[in-house]
Specification:
Blueprint (H helix, E strand, L loop, with lengths): L1 H14 L3 H8 L28 E4 L4 E8 L5 E7 L2 E7 L11 E8 L2 E8 L10 E5 L8 E7 L3 H30 L1 H25 L1
Parallel strand pairs: 1-8
Antiparallel strand pairs: 2-6, 3-4, 3-7, 5-6, 7-8
């Protein structure tokens, strides 16, 4: 009986599969490449280093539009369409004639850029929706921007102040005129003399009729 148990245990030992070895080999995975998880590099568009951007200012404040291209570019043109008229600023050079005093166009080379700039020295409501377009020669992309002028309440405050000031100014003029009239003997005599002559004329007329 004891020999049968020993033989049975030996048989079970040799017929059991090596699970530990199988488990250890199944968990091996290849290493993950770091390059496969990095984002794809995209070359930036160097056609316009500074693109025109919409500008929003309160009425009366200055406004500036920029357009910048690489300094080695042959030229860039920043055109303006608005209440003042239609003008084109071509840089380098940047000579624009017969423009209003409130508008100024200039060219500048700064930080590796050839910049074209339109500057409003002071905006008005008429300048609202003014549009600028930047264009490089033989380039299909023409970025644009718009000027938005809003009222922050300053104009109404100025209007109210001017109205109140004008009202008190008129009152002050009348008060000064009345004071001068009261203190001026010449004017009083002139007014009194005129009244006396009228009374005398009336008396003479009455006597002649009687």
């Amino acid at each position: 009986m004891r020999k049968d148990c020993v033989l049975l245990l030996a048989l079970l030992h040799f017929t059991t599969p090596p699970t530990a070895a199988t488990t250890s080999t199944s968990t091996v995975t290849p290493p993950v490449s770091a390059a496969s998880t990095s984002p794809r590099e995209v070359s930036p568009d160097s056609s316009y280093l500074t693109r025109p951007a919409d500008v929003k200012v309160a009425v009366g404040e200055p406004a500036v539009f920029y357009c910048g291209v690489p300094a080695a570019s042959p030229q860039v043109t920043l055109s303006l369409y608005g209440h003042h008229g239609n003008y084109s600023l071509t840089c380098p050079g940047g000579l624009v004639e017969d423009i209003p005093q409130a508008l100024y166009g200039s060219c500048e080379v700064r930080e590796g850029q050839l910049l074209a700039m339109w500057t409003f020295k002071g905006t008005s409501f008429h300048d609202n929706s003014t549009r600028v377009v930047c264009q490089r020669p033989n380039h299909p992309d023409a970025p644009a921007a718009v000027l938005y002028v809003y009222d922050d309440g300053t104009s109404y405050a100025v209007l109210i102040g001017c109205t109140i000031g004008g009202f008190f100014g008129v009152l002050l003029v009348f008060a000064l005129s009345y004071t001068m009239l009261q203190r001026s003997e010449t004017l009083q005599t002139w007014f009194r003399g005129s009244d006396a002559e009228d009374d005398l004329t009336t008396i003479v007329s009455d006597k002649s009729e009687s």
